Amino acid sequence: MSHVFPRHCHAANPTAATGDGCFVIDQNGKRYFDGSGGAAVSCLGHSNQRVAQAIKDQLDKLAFAHTGFFTSEPAEALADLLIANAPGDLDRVYFVSGGSEAVESAIKLARQFHIENGEPQRRHLIARRQSYHGNTLGALAAGGNAWRRQQFAPLLVDVSHIAPCYEYAERNADESLADYGHRVAQELEDEILRLGSDTVMAFMAEPVVGATLGAVPPVEGYYTRIREICDKYGVLLILDEVMCGMGRTGHLFACDAEGIAPDILCIAKGLGAGYQPIGAMLCSKRIYDTIAAGTGFFQHGHTYLGHPVAAAAGLAVLREMLDNDLPAQVQSRGQYLETQLRRRFGQHAHIGDIRGRGLFWGVEFVADRETKTPFDPSLGLAGKLKKAAFANGLICYPMPGTRDGKNGDHVLLAPPFIATEAELDGALDCLETAMNEVI
Ligand code: PLP
Known about the structure:
Blueprint: E1 16-20, E2 23-26, E3 31-34, H1 37-40, H2 49-61, H3 73-85, E4 90-96, H4 99-116, E5 124-128, H5 137-142, H6 146-149, E6 160-162, H7 167-170, H8 177-195, E7 200-205, H9 222-233, E8 236-240, E9 264-267, E10 279-284, H10 285-293, H11 308-323, H12 326-345, E11 351-357, E12 360-365, H13 381-391, E13 394-395, E14 397-399, E15 410-413, H14 421-438
Parallel strand pairs: 3-13, 5-6, 5-7, 7-8, 8-9
Antiparallel strand pairs: 1-2, 2-3, 4-10, 9-10, 11-12, 12-15, 14-15
Helix pairs in contact: 2-11, 3-11, 4-10, 8-9, 12-14, 13-14
């Protein structure tokens, strides 16, 4: 009997034994193509020797030194390399252990910035419906996934949620893409004015929505307008690129494609690529300087901030990414994946939308293509598809539709950046077989 507390108490998961490129291999030797990179984590696949060696080298030198006393070479070097490639005036990096910690840190930094900037009344956070920012209580409060929030609602601070930019489901038939983008961005300004423009501390969003909607990119111009509105009212823009950042969309940072920069940027997953748990919050020079000139102390912190071994892994991952221009490779492989997805599934009676960027794609299922009516969530389609795909040797990331009927079941594909075209074809064969079994 196992003493591990698993994600699902009654699931009998196989034991993952080894990794080989894009494949995870279980204890019986069965190979699974990692079509979701875990949860968009394993961007370099599972056996990158450069990263493994960097971890071993760092362990031989030093495993841990507390950041209350020391900095470390890998943390300094990783911060330098991130900032050299980061958008806008992002200037400082705060290393944590994962995505939720990065988001928690961002929320608290935004609040502290305003206090030290002489505006302590700024305390409201605005985020978006159908978003996911993590499972710790602050991050969960920011997220707009009704199902994940439901039972913890009494523990969550108040956060306003406006509409996401979800063109497939929510654009009116007679509305241009630009008008739609403008309309949903306008919800931010309306909410700021409703709350009182000098009481809002930050707006948080995922540039390409991951875990709740399934790789939904914004329409052109949406983030330009969002940036303008934030600037107009002194509201900080926090972009959560925990899932869509670090090359996943074919740009090192997803917001690079929008031509804007945030005040605070959260990254994780692809930063350590699964080799070590690491996340980071990047903040602008203005925010850092304000705190440095004020209390000189961010009222936050975890034991494993800037962990040297995790930072060494992150540094090796980023060097691998930049030395091999993997974002460009993601763009070309992504075009191949898109073409194949559309060729195979574009006319499928129960596929309503195929959308994404780079190697980050969502396939949304509908009961009726014309009306875009989702399947009844009680059918559990996404879960069945996950099981069938897994049995066929494909790891993909399923997401159930929301119970409010706003979006249907979908499956997220986020394969490793090193996947070959033949491997992607093999993954789509598995997905097609699974779909034929389930739908
Ligand atoms: N933010 C986004 C956009 C995510 O997709 C996730 C995880 O899926 C998180 C935050 C939370 O990250 P973690 O699971 O590492 O805490």
